[in-house]
Write a structure and sequence with these properties.
This protein folds into 2 domains: about 1-70, SH3 type barrels (Roll), CATH 2.30.30; about 105-210, no CATH class. About 25% of the residues lie in helices and about 45% in strands. The protein contains 4 helices and 16 strands. The strands form 5 sheets. It has a 4-stranded mixed beta sheet with strand order 13-10-6-16, with no helix packed on it. A 4-stranded antiparallel beta sheet has the order 12-11-14-15. It has a 3-stranded antiparallel beta sheet with strand order 3-4-5.
């Protein structure tokens, strides 16, 4: 009951306050107070919306709203703490989103030199995977010293089916992944010992370093 009476008194007193001039001489015209807090009031005025702090308002308005400097300081501290927690939460959320931004996770990337390749008239011959070339025949390439081959595992981090393109040097391989699915020990060949493999998904590209076994 007392809270209701207090709210009515505040509303009446606010309705009568046409203009408010703070202690710095700033005049707020056609004021309508929309919110009262321990450290000040939020108002709508002819120039927009503003927060007027009690410490900058005349003593009669401070008394009207029961301004207590200690309570105002405590209130501001609690607001700052809440804002700090919110900002940390936003930062953590953005960091988590940035980690999950790329749709797939590629891991266990190992590279080896295929020493079983035989040289034919100075050309290293090796059989490329049909899923790489789409044709499945022996592809003769001039390669210095042999073929370099990597194996890797890949996981779909999204709830949608997707196609990942894995590119290693001049070669690339398409891998279809179901929602949340993964494939292990995939392979792709190259003609040099490249330091990284590139993965393209939905127009986004990410490089992953290759660990080479001698």
């Amino acid at each position: 009951m007392l809270c209701t009476i207090f709210a009515i008194v505040i509303c009446l007193s606010l309705a009568m306050a046409d203009n408010i001039t703070n202690m710095l001489g700033t005049v707020y015209k056609n004021v309508k107070i929309t919110r009262a807090e321990p450290d000040g009031i939020t108002v709508m005025h002819s120039g927009g919306i503003a927060k007027l702090f009690f410490q900058e308002l005349p003593s009669d308005m401070q008394q009207r709203f029961g301004y207590d400097p200690a309570k105002a300081t405590q209130y501001r501290a609690s607001v700052q703490q809440a804002r700090s927690r919110y900002n940390k939460s936003i930062s953590s959320r953005r960091a988590a989103q940035s980690k999950q931004e790329f749709p797939v996770y590629v891991f266990n990337i190992l590279g080896v030199k295929d020493r079983s390749v035989k040289n034919i008239s100075g050309v290293s011959a090796y059989l490329t995977d049909s899923s790489i070339t789409g044709q499945g025949f022996s592809n003769l390439r001039r390669v210095a010293g042999g073929v370099y081959r990597i194996s890797f595992s890949i996981k779909n981090k999204t709830a949608s089916n997707l196609r990942a393109i894995v590119r290693f040097g001049d070669f690339q391989k398409e891998i279809y992944l179901a929602s949340g699915g993964r494939k292990e020990k995939e392979e792709i060949s190259g003609d040099e010992e490249y330091p990284e493999v590139f993965v393209i998904v939905n127009g986004k590209e990410k490089a992953y370093p290759v660990t080479w076994h001698r």
